[in-house]
Amino acid sequence: MSVSISHDAWKSGTHLDHHGLVGVLDIGSNSVRLVVFEGDGRMPIPLFNEKALCGLGTGLQETGHLSEQGVRSALENLERYFTIAKGMGVQEVSVLATAAVRDARNGDEFVSAIEERFGHRVMVLSGDEEARLSALGVISAFPQADGVVGDLGGGSLELVDVQNGQARRFETTPLGPLRLGELTRQNRDELTARIDTILRKVSWLDALEGRDLFAVGGAWRSLARAHMELTDYPLEVIHHYAIGADETVRFLEEIARMGRKELRALDAVSKRRVDKLPVTALVLKRTIELGKARQVVFSSFGLREGCLYDRLPQGEQARDPLVDSCMDIAYKSSRFSPHPEVLERWIAPFFEDVPASEQRLIRAACALSDFAWNEHPSYRGEHAFQRVLRLPVVGLNHADRVFLAYAILARYTGGIDEEGTQRVRKLLSLRRRDLALNVGLALRLALTLSGGATELLESALLERERDMVGERGFVISMHGHQGGLAGDVVTRRIAALSEALGQDIRIER
């Protein structure tokens, strides 16, 4: 299956047409997690997300059985999750079990107990199927992903070579921290040799050279949080957090040297993950070094999201996840029936030379341009800025998030220098900051001119003016009764945008 982003972004149906609730219950080697999503479209929205660290796979390497305490904890939490799902009216719950249940001698017994007690079928995934679904989760969030997905669970590390929207090669390795045990000064060399031996059996690991390693799984996300804390990174969003390979290796070596007391002092790391953090760091370090990765990119999407993405028709899979998500937000939060396609067409002459990668961000900004209308006017820009930075959307990197946030800030305030918005400034180049300002000012003009009823823009034609010498600014043609849209506030908005663009803008009536 090849994924290419559909550019028919405003096609009818971009907003949520799938109103039912669906759940995915993931029974892993270390944790049991329920996620309930609203809808099953291109970008289902998580409404409930909770995990319990049950430790089903604790001691599996030595005993061959699921932990008795882990089984008790899992069944107790499964009862909670099925009760919650029923109370929410969830239409369907997919129950997935992975490495520990798959490999344990008493795994079938545990599955039977779940099915008899709760009346839900449990799908025990093979190693290849687990890897495939994890890769599809990454592909759903990174449609142009090119690299290797590494999904570290408690009992295994799944590796998948992905390119052009396809999962090409799979490998399941017994490198989960519950199998490897704790890393100590005494066993470091032995454990490193063991990890290396297993990784070298992955015949295609050299395919990672010079490409991205997409890191999936709670243990590796904990490492990302720790890196953010230690470097005072300005944006606390794990998804699409990217670190160069050399810097990652240095950081992982630092983590491996830390004692338990130092690790527990890290606010970003769950106290229940502290003991396993050094060994998960070692697995990541050796994967990077042996595969010669270019950088590590952390993904919040994995197995559960891949399970939903796998069900979609190919046409739905090809849709742009960012634009679809922003359209869902627009339909739920705009003052009037949103017409972002009208906005996009109207401001397009200002941005004819902008590359395609940023055209889609402009499209997303058009969808979000009126979503904070009901905030208090004194705080509207600030709240919109912070909300865009933290939106649960994918299909954009951190610099793109900052771009969108600044564009929406400028749409509401007329600038991007507001107090409290400067911490993330370093994530965006000066050129892109200027473009974000221009996009925001263009949206500000369009929404002021139309009063938010954007269909009125179809009667106010915006064109680039040209003469024998070449381009010489822009003209907004408003004839007949549409000429009444002009006014003092519109004149001020035109002046601000004209100054930012460095080009004349005039109204013709």
From TrEMBL:
Coiled-coil residues: none
Top-level taxon of the source organism: Bacteria
GO MF term set: pyrophosphatase activity
Pfam families documented for this protein: Ppx-GppA (PF02541), Ppx_C (PF21697)
Domain Ppx/GppA phosphatase N-terminal positions: 38-313
Exopolyphosphatase C-terminal domain sequence ranges: 355-503
CDD domains for the chain: ASKHA_NBD_HpPPX-GppA-like (cd24052)
The protein's name in its UniProt record: Ppx/GppA family phosphatase
